[in-house]
């Protein structure tokens, strides 16, 4: 088992265990990481699970599909490495991964 670090907008870090097969959104919620609302429950329909993947970990996160990209277009704090955390499934290759939380979810 590895770990992923979620970094809040103010720099506070949360180290959580990688639970393979779960979405990063679910892992964050299950571990009480603040800053992810996930209003739609992971259906790629709300955009309130926005995270910014650390640039070194973009490849490990995989590619966003068309639906996710469309949702991200509506995200005010979108960056080139923005993703919806409900659309990223945790895998063993994510041990050590760092993701950042935006200041606000839309
Ligand atoms: S939880 Fe709604 S888009 Fe991810």
Task: Provide structural commentary.
Helix content is 18%, strand content 19%. It has a single domain (3-100), classed as Beta-grasp domain (Ubiquitin-like (UB roll), Roll). The protein is of the alpha+beta class and 106 residues long. The longest helix has 8 residues, at 66-73. Strands 2-1-5-3-4 form a 5-stranded mixed beta sheet. The structure holds FE2/S2 (inorganic) cluster.
| Uncertain residue segments | none
Number of helices: 3
The side-by-side strand order for the widest beta sheet comes to 2-1-5-3-4
Overall pLDDT? 96
Q: How many domains, as an integer?
A: 1
Order of helices and strands: EEHEHHEE
Distance between the termini: 32 Å
Described by strand count, sense and barrel closure, the largest sheet is: 5 strands, mixed
What is the CA-based Rg, rounded?
12 Å
Proportion in helices: 10-25%
Tally of extended strands? 5
CATH 4th-level superfamily: Beta-grasp domain
Shape: globular
Small molecules (ligands, ions, cofactors) in the structure: FE2/S2 (inorganic) cluster
State the CATH architecture: Roll
Class by alpha and beta content: alpha+beta
CATH class placement: Alpha Beta
Q: Within the CATH hierarchy, at the fold level, what is the topology?
A: Ubiquitin-like (UB roll)
Q: Strand content of the residues, in percent?
A: 15-25%
């Amino acid at each position: 088992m590895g770990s992923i670090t979620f970094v809040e907008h103010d720099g506070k870090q949360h180290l959580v265990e990688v639970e393979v097969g779960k979405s990063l959104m679910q892992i964050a919620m299950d571990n009480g990481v603040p800053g992810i609302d996930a209003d739609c429950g992971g259906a790629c329909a709300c955009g309130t699970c926005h995270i910014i993947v650390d640039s070194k970990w973009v490849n490990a996160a995989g590619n966003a599909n068309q639906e996710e990209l469309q949702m991200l277009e509506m995200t005010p704090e979108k960056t080139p490495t923005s993703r919806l955390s409900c659309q990223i499934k945790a895998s063993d290759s994510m041990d050590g991964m760092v993701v950042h939380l935006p200041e606000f979810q839309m």
